[in-house]
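Q: Give me the 3D complex with fe (ii) ion.
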Amino acid sequence: MSSSNKTPPTPVGEGDSFLVLDFLPPDLADAVFEQLRGEVQWNLSAGGPVPRLVAVEGEINPDGTCVSARLSSIPAFHRPTLCTPPLSYPIYRHPADESPPLLPFSPTVARIRRHVQDALQQPVNHVLIQHYRSGADYISEHSDKTVDVVRGSRIVNVSVGAQRVMTLRTKKDAQRTPGDARAVQRVLLPHNSMFVLGPATNMRWLHGIRADKRPQHEKAGAECRAGGERISLTFRHIGTFLTPGEGYIYGQGAKSKTRDAARPVVRGGPEAEELLAAFGAENHASEFDWEVAYGEGSDVLHFSVFNSGD
Ligand SMILES: O=C(O)CCC(=O)C(=O)O
Ligand SMILES: [Fe+2]
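A: Here is the predicted complex, encoded as structure tokens.
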């Protein structure tokens, strides 16, 4: 692991979050920005203007039994392969209605993933990759939505390219009186850093990357790297899964916790409103009660109304 003999990182937020510098080994770190920009299939959001480019990759589970149909009258190379049930893949639900399709890990992302898993000693099976094309691209303040994130697991942001600032701010309800200032921390995310977001910090603090409209000549060298472009990879350990074609859903965040009893995906309606309300509560409540909000599970995949929150 590249960071094993470095000084211990400074705790951030509730103390369960920290930043690791010089995370990837030099041979990977030097070329990683260009490799990712070229190999990732970037999407502009279909549902509305998203102030950055996004892509989703993840682990496709070979959880089905695939058999070559034993039809002796058909030559072997023509026999169909029957998979029952077929594959499933992790799903990370959040209030923005449209997620790009999940693709298998691409080669450079797969290498970064191995470093993350080694460093954390925790599996990660899903990554949201975001390209901040300039200082104008940003992500608004939010808490990550944890209905589908394996409980107690950590969320990891690997940064490459231009340095940006992650701003952490305690949730509004933590103010004892309306005039109280909310705690704010600024974490610099330089090229080749890994920010680990612990569950307690995600529960009590919001995080975001604000737009930086300063002219290039006012920025430090690290902020101008890669022409001011930044790519972040948010790795998560997801416990909720979809079957191909978004037909069925099961796992931690769904009503059925197991593959055998997977239930059809729900689109819109009152269950969608409930999940959106639970997401809202997760953004606002410092003592968010996961069991109350998400414990029963939700089979909703698409919300009827487009909502641009993160
Ligand atoms: O770009 C980043 O580092 C932050 C991404 C983030 O917070 C998210 O995807 O939830
Ligand atoms: Fe986030």
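A quick observation: Confidence is low (pLDDT under 50) at residues 64-72, 305-310.
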